[in-house]
# Entry
Amino acid sequence: MHALNRRGDIKRDIKEALGNKNLRGALTRFGEAYLESRARAYAGKDFNALREEICAIKRNAADKMEDLAQRFTRAAEARGTKVFRAATAQEAREYIANLARQKNVRQIVKSKSMASEEIHLNEHLHQLGLETVETDLGEWILQLSGQKPSHMVMPAIHMTRGEVAQVFSKEVREQLPPDIPKLVKVARQNLRRKFLEAQMGITGANIAVAETGTIVIVTNEGNGRLTTTLPPLHVAVVGLEKLVEKFSDIKPILEALPRSATAQKITSYVSMITGPTPVAYPDGTTGDKELHIVLLDNGRTQMQADPVFKEALQCIRCASCLNVCPVFQIVGGHVYGYVYTGGIGTVLTAFLNGWQNASEIQNLCLGCERCKLYCPGKIDLPRLIRELRRRTGEKAGAPSISSQVMAKVLPNRRLFHSLLRAAGIAQKPFQRGGMVRHLPLFLAGLTEGRSLPAIVSKPLRDRVAQTPKTSQIVGDNQRQGVRVGFFAGCLVDFVYPRIGEAVKELLTSAGIEMVFPMEQTCCGVPALYTGLAHTAAEAARQNITAFEHAGVDRIVTACPTCAQAIKRYPEILAGEPEWHQRATTMANQVEHVTGYLHGVFQRLAGARLKKARGTTVTYHDSCHMKGCLGLTLEPRELLGLAGYNLVELECSDRCCGFGGSYSIKFPQLSRQILDNKLDTVAGAEVGTLALDCPGCLLQISGGLTSRGSAVTVKHTVELLDL
Amino acid sequence: MFLNLHDHDELDRLYALFKEQAEAISALVYRVTDPSAAGKKLREIINQLAVNKLVAVPSPLVNSCLNNAGAQTAAVHTTNLRNYAPEADLGLSEVDLAVAETGTLVQDSTAPEQRLVSTLPPVHVALVQTGRLVHYLSDAIDLFNTNKDTSSLPGYISFISGPSRTADIERVLTIGVHGPEKLYVIFVDRAGGACVE
# Structure
């Protein structure tokens, strides 16, 4: 099992995946088509209502997992099913192997089952000399070619028809053309024989109903039906998380699963099996079939006992979190290196296959939070991955040098800021036209292969200190005494102070006093995403104190990631009741400046904004702006109020690949995601790209500069002229 | 849950929805008045596809359809289907329900013969009484949801939506993998015959 020894190979895997054009092409095309066809499949259905229902059902099932397992066992046994509770993968493998031995089984047909892959059942049975044939077309292709699945629902998505033709030609000893219908026919003919001969059929299950002892199997090809019908012995390997309490619980899951997984309203076949049914033999006689259900734990009760990760049991294995993931779209499942891939796979791997296996791959997450919007089980996957990082950070003995530095420097604002200032001076000799090639500390990797703006010699904090106090300015709001605190965040403070200055001008013109608390520091996100929980908590405390002293009514920031980080302060400080209260106050006060200004200027009906007179711009939806803060209309309307013509960008909400320190850890990946974005920007044929995140600004403008593009990138607030 | 046979407008609407949805997933859908017309339709299919060997699971509707088909050209097997189904050109059976919103057929297939004739041959012809149309998938599940008495739940319930399919090679949709490549659905308005209202 090479997968167990794969730590440290992730960079090599990424390089391989990036070199695989088939895979990238297939995944990108799929990622684009998926969203549209998924939306069509859900037409007339209320996705949010449906996922509320599923979430409640699965949460209830997770709460009562042991009780449901016992009720399932009783109900299934009452119908003649034999139920085996397997605590570990080994117990499950041995039970099935013993059964095969007892029943004199020589040939086995299998219908696709993630649980059986999780326990490495095929390898085990093969070692015992049993022929085990995967009958799902994709799985069969992989079995014949000795490869691993790259996607939970479409296992062979990384292979071309030409490669499949080669694999099949070898198997049937006949030169086959790369013709898909022909290849499918070859699979039908060859596997048909296997179905008719096999003495045992092995499947998984998508749902297991405790009340009735029923298993539900969802398939398209018909192999599930044949596997459960022809052999006299049927074994289903079912993870405990598949349990639901009632038969009626099947309904919402069956509505969502095919729609989210393959954008089908329903799959070709759904089989609900309750107890063994008769088996028909070729000689015309019938007999009693045996149905064995292996209820697999293998880490699931441990997951259930965990207050945070219990949520992962709400997964229905639709893989939509993979389908919408910007990283998965580029590298596919092999990089994740285990049976369960993508975001949810990262979490499942930690529990089902061990934390060491998850520690590398959890770094792949960009933190864009897109998956959260699409999960039919309503799992807050980004939160689970952050928690995974925090715990692997605790478990791992030696953190990387950059995170050691971060842990030391970040909590000490003066040190951090003076290092940034020193870097601003030190980089001078390397600067060319306001761009720089090197950044200090944990920001160093940002400059790999791209041009970046320089750290300014005078950060925002110094600039706002020198401008006249806003009390000198008279305006409607000022009379009412509205004081708004500005949270800059590192990028606006030290790289893009012009954004902060634009905010100040806009607020001032609307008669609102902007306050800049000097004690504010980094929002804590780099530490949070690196798993440095204590460092993040310290940053949170400093910022809470700073803004409390400022005595403001609201806090605005030009960075959606900072806004989202502050909204998470209660989560970060959950263990400290007094701080949690203060964190909640700050979290409720903070909002993105574009959302805030949208409200302000709409009240003023756009007065005081100079009209741009039909200048055309396009708009990039930053992940955290849209996915976390839910701001999509606001920036567009604000630009409209200012007189801009908005041309929509193709896939405007596709990630730019920045992801903070991500672009340091995985520069090649980040680069590839950026390239896709730059292509769509070029396709929009406009002179200006508007956005609302300084991170995206840095990434996209850097990319455009190195391409020699004339498109300028601006934060929305910079486009609002007075 | 079932519609009154006299509620023609509602049945027409559900049938139209079923046809639209099932055809979108490559099924072929017809509606006839009685078993004699169903037999005629079956004969057309047999002739068109040059079917030599047919397997069928007997039911009153299947039997009268077969009788009316009068297809002397094809050998018809209704017993020992495990032996004949793998080589048959066409499988014929009656299903219990039809779900309009998804174009799905629902059948108590506890008897393995029901699964054999609808999965092994390359063509499956399903007969269904028009009055057994329900609107939503959840309606069909509710019909099996007996709550009190779980022992009455059939051992194997099949939901069939279109012919078998795959997109496992390059995501190209291909019809007909391990199951049939053609699925015909024939709705019969008066399954009891022309004279029964």
Observations:
- The domain at 8-188 of chain B is CATH 3.40.50.10420 (Rossmann fold).
